[in-house]
Amino acid sequence: MIGVTVLGATGSIGVSTLDVLRRHPERYRVAALTANRDVDGLFAQCREFHPGYAVMADPAAARALETKLKAAGLPTRALAGPAGLEQVAALGEADFVMAAIVGAAGLLPALAAVRAGKRVLLANKEALVLSGGLFMAEAQQHGARILPIDSEHNAVFQCMPPSLADGLDQAGVRRILLTASGGPFRQKTLDQLADVTPDQACAHPNWAMGRKISVDSATMMNKGLEVIEACWLFQARPEQIGVVVHPQSVIHSMVEYVDGSVLAQLGQPDMRTPIAHALGWPERTESGVRPLDLFEVARLDFEPPDLTRFPCLELAYRAIEAGGSAPAVLNAANEVAVEAFLEQRLPFLRIAQIIEETLNRVAPMAIDDLEQTLEADRVARETAHQALARRD
Ligand code: NDP
Q1: For a tag site, which of 59, 84, 136, 220 has the least CB within 10 Å?
Q2: What is the 83 CA–ligand 1 centroid distance (Å)?
Q3: Average pLDDT over residues 45-62
């Protein structure tokens, strides 16, 4: 039996992960589950999967969960806060850790899993954007295997040769092509984008996702974060990564080789495919995903991204090229701006402006350790909040 900890179990990726695990009770055992405040959601999952531990990041929520677990006579132990998250990420009973907490809050638990040498199924792309160099170095040092869950990176991983030890050039890879659906606003004009609402931004045409990543998808910052993520995962230079808008979301990404071959991974837009792939790797396992019917798909379209309407993508390239703390600053400013947009304190088009202003104000610094990363994150958040206050 393989023990699995699911960080962010009550979220969109967490629920899909548990759906795949549910299909293979003979192979996987749930070691621990975590959430932030959704006590009822985590309690219901504890009742079904009987994990050894359940963690609520919020201490009051953890107390409420503990009361419910005791009243129901369940053996699961409730833990609280960041220490609890890190504890279950490094748990001896967990062989695999699904890192699916949203945002920078996911970094330390994911890093704890890496330092414990786990197989880390990495959905939390912000961890790599914030701290890619450190994260990858620690993985190497501790023998942790990082398998990408983001559908694009999982697709790229599937199209890559088995070893990338000597880099993309040695492997004959010319370019990585990340596909982008274009999000819910692909066909909207700049004028129309001025007054779109959070609910419109979260109504993604192809994927059902959490609210933060849905807004990232609407601004195309999601693709920008993915470019940075791909640089770290595949040792790529930014200019080796291209973005192709592909509205059907059937091709999940591609790898172009020097001989002219382009390998693509296709499938339904359903996260259970990359989740099952990473759980089963190097074997294949049933995911519950409906087979792809190419006659139903019928056509595949491709277009270049429009950086005038979606400037976040360019800001992300700028940040990874600047290096050092710049990606962490980009990520923090984006989290602050997206939260303000979701709370209807900021118009959609200002999201990119807040991020750009923050990048302009916080000079990039070299990053050598975790403390410097967290400090860059803190300064950027403060600067982004100041920028928000000026615009309110
Ligand atoms: P959701 O918002 O649906 O879920 C987030 C999860 O994290 C929930 O379990 C939530 O708990 C928990 N959480 C939120 N804040 C904290 C915190 N401060 N401390 C601890 N736990 C917290 O997000 P998604 O599932 O959509 O996304 C998760 C990650 O996966 C993101 O990094 C996203 O970019 C990435 N990803 C998601 C995809 C998708 O299809 N959804 C696709 C590719 C990548 P609670 O329920 O209690 O709030």
Answers
A1: 59
A2: 18
A3: 98
